[in-house]
């Protein structure tokens, strides 16, 4: 992940929005801390309207998002940072720590399952850095199309830290050689290579905060969204942050 340049954030107004108190939970044998909150229905609707007005482009790059994205206005990210400051101690940071935005984009899944690249058919991690965190803000789409978290069977890894990347990649390749390339579809359940350890639903307005190093995947049906059905337009705001000790 790289920090978005100042001119990448669109020069449009963003509605003011609030969120509920965060609830904490831990996931898996590695006890990864996650936080959950919600924006109000009215605020969520206002954010949906904002996202509809943004210019989208197909996501590209290594292990790309399977759809289209639009950079969020800086005002949205600033408000999100304010909300996240409330839970710094729960992630073992002091209240004086600095939350540095790295990326924030409205994201719509548009790629059919049969057109997924090989990398998109597996759970992935966003960053191996211990001070990087991700936030999913679910806005629209089927409630069941949330996010699932996984353990890599061969290594037992749930989080891919810098010292685990090489071992994970080697064992993942061996697993593909042993079991074959997975069918072109979304990864939403147990397979010989991965075991699901937790799932969260995509309730409208829900915010889910989790370590960027944890293996995860969108919980979508095998075939992906039906582009002709507006109810299957999975709209989220995906944000990434670095937390620096104060």
Give the topology.
Blueprint: E1 23-27, E2 32-38, H1 41-52, E3 57-58, E4 67-71, H2 74-84, E5 98-109, E6 132-140, E7 147-152, H3 165-179, E8 194-200, E9 206-211, E10 216-218, E11 235-244
Antiparallel strand pairs: 1-2, 2-9, 3-4, 4-5, 5-11, 6-9, 6-11, 7-8, 7-10
CA distance, first residue to last residue = 22 Å
Report on the biggest sheet: 8 strands, antiparallel
CATH class: Mainly Beta
Instruction: Return the CATH architecture.
Output: Sandwich
Structural class: alpha+beta
**Could you report the average pLDDT, rounded to the nearest whole number?**
92
The total beta strand count reads 11
State the helicity in percent bands: 10-25%
Strand order across the biggest sheet?
Answer: 1-2-9-6-11-5-4-3
Radius of gyration: 17 Å
Tally of alpha and pi helices: 3
What string gives the helices and strands in order?
EEHEEHEEEHEEEE
Strand content: 25-35%
């Amino acid at each position: 992940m790289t920090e978005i340049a100042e001119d990448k954030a669109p020069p449009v107004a963003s509605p003011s929005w609030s969120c509920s108190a965060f609830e904490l939970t831990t996931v898996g044998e590695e006890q990864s801390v996650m936080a959950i909150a919600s924006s109000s229905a009215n605020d969520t609707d206002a954010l949906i309207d904002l996202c509809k007005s943004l210019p989208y482009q197909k996501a590209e790059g290594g292990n790309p998002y399977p759809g289209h994205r639009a950079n969020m206005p800086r005002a949205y990210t600033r408000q999100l940072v304010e909300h996240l400051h409330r839970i710094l101690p729960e992630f073992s940071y002091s209240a004086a720590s600095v939350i540095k935005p790295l990326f924030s984009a409205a994201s719509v899944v548009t790629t059919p399952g049969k057109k997924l690249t090989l990398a998109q058919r597996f759970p992935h991690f966003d960053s191996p850095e211990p001070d990087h965190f991700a936030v999913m803000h679910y806005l629209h789409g089927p409630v069941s199309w949330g996010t699932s978290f996984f353990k890599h069977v061969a290594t037992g890894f749930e989080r891919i830290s810098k010292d685990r990347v090489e071992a994970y990649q080697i064992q993942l390749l061996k697993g593909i050689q042993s079991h074959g390339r997975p069918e072109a579809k979304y990864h939403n359940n147990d397979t010989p290579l991965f075991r699901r350890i937790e799932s969260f639903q995509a309730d409208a307005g829900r915010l889910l905060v989790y370590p960027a190093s944890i293996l995860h995947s969108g919980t979508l049906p095998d075939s992906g969204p039906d582009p002709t059905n507006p109810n299957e337009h999975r709209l989220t705001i995906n944000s990434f942050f670095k937390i620096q000790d104060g």
